[in-house]
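Entry 14: structure prediction run for Nitrogen fixation protein FixH. Input pasted below.
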Amino acid sequence: MSSKPLTGTKVFLMLVAFFGLVIGVNATMMKLAIATLPGTEVDSAYAAGLTYDREISAAQDQALRKWKVNAHIERRNDGGAVVQVEARDAGGQPISGLKFGGRLERPTDKRADLAVELTEAGIGLYRGNAASVAPGQWDLVIEGEARGTRVFLSRNRVILN
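Run finished. Output tokens:
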């Protein structure tokens, strides 16, 4: 049996190949992890911090109005979803003339977010459709505007089957 001797060059090349493979796998896994879930809630934490006081003020104004806004979402068999919003003022009267919009946001992947345009289907009743809504957990975000100013914001976790 003739075997070739183990030389320093062979050991060096084996070490380089081993560590090159380890570094290559680590770099690939790191790139895939960052591309899959960047881990950010907002694009700019600084800009979100600057608007924080305005958000608190808007939430306080919304609470003072004492509106009762009920949202219902139902996933259809074809994969779409129907969103319905009923808005009433503090006295229980339907609120008309608002511009409502909605979003279905995936808690784990912002790339899967879907916008839902709501139109007034009756006095105080707003409806919209979303196509290709996958089953699972979603955040239903409802925003209402009057004269270009946001007057209502709601965020609720829903599970669609």
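Notes: The chain has three helices and eight strands. Will compare against the previous run tomorrow.
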